[in-house]
Amino acid sequence: MKGLMKTRLGAGNVEIQEIPEPKPGPGEVLIEVKAAGICGTDIHIWKDEYKSVPPMVMGHEGSGVVTALGEGVEGLSVGDRVTSETFARFCGNCFFCKQGRPNLCPGRKSIGTHLNGFFTKYLIIRATAVHRLPENVSFRAGALSEPLACCTHGILERTPVTAGDWVLVSGPGTIGLLCLQLAKADGGKAIVLGTDKDEERLALAKELGADEAINVDRQDPTALIQERTDGLGVDLAIECAGAAASFNQCLKLVRKGGRISQGGLFGKPITSDVELVAMKELEVFGFFSHVPSAWDRALRLMAEGKVLTEPLVSHRLPLTEWQKGFSLMERGEGLKILLFPED
Ligand SMILES: [Zn+2]
Ligand SMILES: [Zn+2]
Fold first, then answer.
1. So what's the pLDDT on residue 343?
2. Which ligand is in closest contact with the Cα of 38?
3. Are the C-beta atoms of residues 76 and 66 closer than 8 Å to each other?
4. Order of strands across the sheet with 254-262?
5. What pTM does this model have?
6. Measuring CA to CA, which residue among 78, 74, 42 is closest to residue 58?
7. 4, 113, 302 from 60: Cα distances, Å
8. Ligand 2 center to residue 331 CA distance, Å?
9. Which ligand sits closest to the CA of 90?
């Protein structure tokens, strides 16, 4: 079968290789991949800006069908439509694992960065990482379960929204548009900020329920936010762009005593007026990857139509056209790009 491999460390070193079909060991299942999403992290791995342990098949977001069960696997059947958590292994014994936070486990090993991932035809994963897709969730929509689980963890678990809260989402990429929908599902009012390159994404944000979507290159959002929030500022600001200007907007537009949630990755230190955290008595949160508890809720929200993931899919490409997909992603074009393995 064909697998999109990071072959060794260093910039580039990504290519399609012929690899053997894997067999599930005890406690593992074999999944036939139906759709896999390109994440910003994949671009960082491609450019060697994110730690990976090659050689491995890339891809940590996907959906598929269970085609074989390893010894001792219960609760799953051949033919089940599924998606999977990314942590193939975590120690289960450290301070963080014991708190139900395997995303922070130093011994965590993930598909697509340490072990073979979704950018291929077949994938093996521990059965306990697998979640069944609701009947009305397509493979395409289900391929976005992982980013949705990350945002569900970030917003609903870490910084829950109360009905009537004003929520600022800065950066209308996949993570931003999922956070927007979660804030709305939780009863909040949402303002999404983007820049000139985000015009289409801002229009989509409106379709997905944003109360306001503002291009900050054309309009300073301050006056509008002041007006909407009785001069206070937003209750919660979620930074999803991974850009210094975006974080600084969040600091400025959040109300005194409000909360900031950091979801974007900057890839470098930034300059920021952190004194505002003290002066405004802000609470600062962050979210990284997902925890098991977020998955069931994420899948339920998809099943109930409270969060739509399929409208975020901008491109569908065969796996062999990965380079086109990676380049689109690198240039910030499109939104969620899906790859499909071929026979
Ligand atoms: Zn990702
Ligand atoms: Zn651990």
1. 64
2. 1
3. yes
4. 212-215, 189-194, 166-170, 234-239, 254-262, 283-286
5. 0.95
6. 42
7. 12, 8, 19
8. 36
9. 2
